[in-house]
Specification:
The protein is an alpha/beta fold. The protein has two domains: about 5-70; about 95-285, 3-Layer(aba) Sandwich (Rossmann fold), CATH 3.40.50. Helix content is about 40%, strand content about 20%. The protein contains twelve helices and eleven strands. It has helices spanning about 10-20, 25-40, 55-70, 75, 100-115, 130-140, 150-165, 175-180, 200, 205-210, 225-235, 255-260; strands at about 5, 50-55, 80, 85-90, 120-125, 140-150, 170-175, 185-190, 240-250, 265-270, 280-285. It has a seven-stranded mixed β-sheet with strand order 7-6-5-8-9-11-10, with helices on both faces. Strands 1-2 form a two-stranded antiparallel sheet. The chain is elongated.
C-alpha cells in the first residue's frame, strides 16, 4: 500500500533540498519552517525524526516559494516571538525586532523603579500590539491604550491581546498620535516605536523590508523624525505629573533627537541597544 504521509526527518530533508535548489541558505530557516508546519517544537525536531507528520510537502514547497520570492519568514509563518510570547503578524504590521524588546524592557524597569502600582499607558502606533500587550502582561496593574491609524493592524493587535489574556486591560483606538494623546485622562507613560526611516534611507533598506513591511509604519519624512517630532512636542501636555515618554529611534538619530523641542518634557537620556547603537529616547515631565 502506498504511504501518503512522511516522517519528520523526510520533511526536514525535503526542506533543506528545496531551499538549496532555490538558492536560500536554509539551515536554521528549514528547521523553523518544518517546526511550524509539523507543529513540533524546534528543540524536539531531532528527537522525533521518526514521527509521522502527514503529507505536508505541497504546503512546504509553497512556503519555500514565497521565501524564494523574498517574503520574510515571519509573514510566511504568520507569527513571531517577542519578549517570550508568540504574536500573530500580517502585512498590516511590522515584524517585531529585538531592539523593540529593549525599549519594552526599559519601560518596565522604569515603571517598577518609580513604584507605580497602577497607572495608564498609551502605546502610539501599536502595530501588532507587541508593546501594549507585553506591558499589560508584565505590569498587571496598568491600564493600557493601544492606538494606530491602521484598522488592519488594530484587528491583529486586538487578537493578540485576547490570545495573551490581557484583552480586558488593553483598549484599542483607531487614531493618529495627537488624537490618541487627547483621549481620556492623562497618561503616566507614553511609549512608541514610531516610523523613523528617512526618505533617503528608504532605498537602501533590504528588499524584504522595503517590499513587504507597511511603508506607513517605517517612513517619516526627509529626516526620519517627522513622527517623533510630533509626539515629543505634544506628549507633555497629556502626561500626568512625573509622566514619561519613551520612543524607539534610528541608530543615527541620537544627536538630532536630543535637540528636539519637547515642550514641558525634559530629556533624560538616549540609550543604546545591545549592539551599541542609539536606540531609545527617554523624556520625563517635571
Amino acid at each position: 500500500m502506498r504511504r501518503h504521509g512522511m516522517k519528520l526527518s523526510e520533511l526536514l530533508e525535503l526542506a533543506r533540498r528545496e531551499m538549496a535548489a532555490a538558492g536560500i541558505a536554509g539551515g536554521p530557516e528549514a528547521e523553523i519552517l518544518v517546526s511550524a508546519l509539523a507543529g513540533v517544537p524546534r528543540s524536539r525536531l531531532f528527537a522525533e525524526t521518526t514521527r509521522e507528520v502527514g503529507d505536508l510537502a505541497s504546503t512546504l514547497r509553497s512556503w519555500i516559494g514565497r521565501r524564494a520570492a523574498g517574503e520574510p519568514l515571519q509573514y510566511i509563518l504568520g507569527a513571531w516571538d517577542f519578549y517570550g510570547r508568540e504574536f500573530l503578524l500580517t502585512r498590516d504590521t511590522l515584524i517585531p525586532r529585538p531592539e523593540t524588546e529593549g525599549l519594552v524592557e526599559r519601560v518596565i524597569g522604569a515603571w517598577k523603579r518609580e513604584g507605580r502600582e497602577s497607572g495608564r499607558i498609551l502605546d502610539v502606533g501599536t502595530g501588532s500590539g507587541v508593546i501594549a500587550v507585553t506591558l499589560a502582561a508584565e505590569l498587571p496593574e496598568a491600564a493600557v491604550v493601544a492606538s494606530d491609524v491602521s484598522a488592519g493592524a488594530l484587528r491583529v493587535a486586538r487578537e493578540n491581546a485576547r490570545r495573551r489574556g490581557v484583552g480586558g486591560r488593553v483598549s484599542f483606538l483607531c487614531a493618529d498620535a495627537t488624537s490618541a494623546l487627547k483621549c481620556g485622562n492623562r497618561f503616566d507613560v507614553v511609549v512608541s516605536n514610531p516610523p523613523y526611516v528617512s526618505e533617503g534611507e528608504w532605498r537602501f533598506l533590504p528588499p524584504e523590508v522595503r517590499d513587504f513591511e507597511p511603508p506607513g509604519a517605517l517612513l517619516a519624512g526627509t529626516d526620519g523624525l517627522a513622527a517623533l517630532r510630533r509626539i515629543a512636542a505634544e506628549a507633555g501636555d497629556y502626561l500626568a505629573p512625573r509622566g514619561e515618554l519613551w520612543c524607539e529611534i534610528g541608530e543615527s538619530q541620537g544627536e538630532a533627537v536630543g535637540r528636539l523641542s519637547s515642550g514641558s518634557l525634559k530629556l533624560v537620556g538616549i540609550y543604546r541597544d545591545l549592539a551599541g547603537r542609539d536606540r531609545v529616547a527617554h523624556w520625563k515631565k517635571g
